[in-house]
Amino acid sequence: MSLKYIIDGIIIGISASIPLGPIGVLVIQRTLNKGRLSGFFSGLGAALSDTIYAIIAGFSLSFIVGFIETQMLWIQIIGALVLIGLGLKIFFNNPAVQLRRQKKRSSSLFQDFASTFILTIANPLAVFLFLAFFAGFRVVEAKQELFDRFLLILGVFVGASTWWFSLSSLINTLRSRINLRRLFWLNKIAGSVIIILVCVAFMVWVSKEYIWVNP
């Protein structure tokens, strides 16, 4: 029975990570520019953030959920501005200059990890995503053992990490086919996609919260 919760958690973790939003684009961009480890550690930061929101959803931490709901507008604005700034940085990044800098100093995997963790944790809608997943899979029950819930959360982290490892490994195989000119245009595309995704997501959220609800 305990194995079932781990498997369910892995499925939920992969399902929640697969949609390639701004973080997915960032992981792809870092893998192409800096290598598989950079992309994977960036994904791990997102996986840890998702796991924290899965804990909140799985253990129904009502105080935190309530705080998120009351401060949702400001959290969304700050998160959107940070991601737009990231998109602009990638857009204007020169891959030739970046490669020269990497030769002079080794890149920090911890910085890659921490940056995506902060960016992902700034999206509190993830807690409601996991609430929906847990309800849909019917994996959280009122009389559920505490150990089983921990196994479920562990499964979420393993599933999310597996997805980011698979994605960074797949993209890394394409690096040998990409020259500086292609990297230059990939940075332009990646930066533009991040900005567009963030703006669209923010406008959709605002329209649902403030326009459709209060016509």
Automatic annotation (TrEMBL):
Q: Which InterPro entries match?
A: LeuE-type
Q: What is its main location?
A: membrane
Location in or out of the cell? Cell membrane
Q: How does it sit in the membrane?
A: Multi-pass membrane protein
Q: Which UniProt keywords apply?
A: Cell membrane, Membrane, Transmembrane, Transmembrane helix
Q: Which Pfam families match?
A: LysE
State whether keyword Cytoplasm applies: no
Entry keyword DNA damage: no
The membrane-spanning stretches of this chain are: 6-28, 40-67, 73-92, 113-137, 149-171, 183-206
Task: Kindly provide the name given to this protein in its UniProt entry.
Answer: LysE family transporter
